Amino acid sequence: MSEQRLLDVFQKGLIRGSERSSYDPAKKYAYVEHPTEGWRVYLRSCVFLHPMNKPFNVMNFLVVKRTGARMSTGAWEPPKGQMEGKDMSRNRSILELLEENVRRETEEESHITRIHQLTHTGLVFQGQETNYGKNEYFQYHIFQGWVDKEQISKSFDTFEWIKEHPMAFKRWKRDRREKDAVAWFDPKKTRLNPRWCPDIAVLYFRNIQK
Fold first, then answer.
1. Does the predicted model carry a pTM greater than 0.70?
2. What beta strand segments (E) does the chain contain?
3. What is the DSSP letter of 122?
């Protein structure tokens, strides 16, 4: 976690915009910028999805695997992603946009289309990428939600179909091809992506009641 104070992206008067990243020049990513203090925050979201049919356990959440990575490598993560510039509506609140973003990322990455009781936990992970300027940051806004048996089956069945139809999977749109497996988190079997995910998970575990 950066030592920089947590910046308030929900305050009024912030400038909304988008810019391409050297990591992925094909997309423009959404940000908010303070008009006088000069800081900029790129908006991201992450969601911890728990099964509705079991007693709540903070560590029992859905994770998806980066396409092509070995099952045993640190390639797993809860559904998450960056907000794109095309999704930065001027007439919606930042919280509404973040919620829309996390629903979209969840659908694209885990093929779950219905989340029950989706809630912003109030937890935010803030950091900087190596290609950022001095006053540029990103924030992962951490959400929590529940999924029912039907949606869980839909997700697992879709990934089983992907495994059986690799050529058809290759024809899917780019954003829907980023993940190729789903599982329930297991610290021994589904190692988290070392890029930010362990810190995000620890923040969640420490602040959410079991």
1. yes
2. 15-21, 24-33, 40-51, 62-66, 76-77, 80-82, 116-127, 136-147, 179-184
3. E
| DSSP states of 24-40 | EEEEEEEEEE-TTT--E
Do β-strands 136-147 and 40-51 pair in parallel, antiparallel, or remain unpaired?
parallel
Alpha-carbon Rg of the chain, whole angstroms?
Answer: 17
Tokens at 172, concatenated: 């899917």
* Contact of 193 with 179, CB cutoff 8 Å: no
Q: How far apart are CA 158 and CA 147, in angstroms?
A: 15
Q: Which of 148, 190, 207 is nearest to 63 (CA)?
A: 190
d(CA 32, CA 18): 8
Q: Per-residue pLDDT tens for 63-96?
A: 999 999 999 999 999 999 999 999 998 889 999 9
Q: Could you tell me the two tokens for 13?
A: 């008067």
Tokens describing residue 175: 């954003």
In angstroms, the Cα distances linking 148 to 16, 29, 128, 152, 184 are 36, 32, 35, 6, 14
Measured CA to CA, the distance from residue 69 to residue 87 in angstroms comes to 29
Q: What kind and span of H or E run contains 203? A: helix 197-207
Tokens of 164: 């059986």
> Which residues make Cβ contacts (< 8 Å) with residue 10, sequence separation at least 6?
93, 94, 95
How many residues are present in the chain?
210
Q: Please, what is the end-to-end C-alpha distance for the chain in angstroms?
A: 23
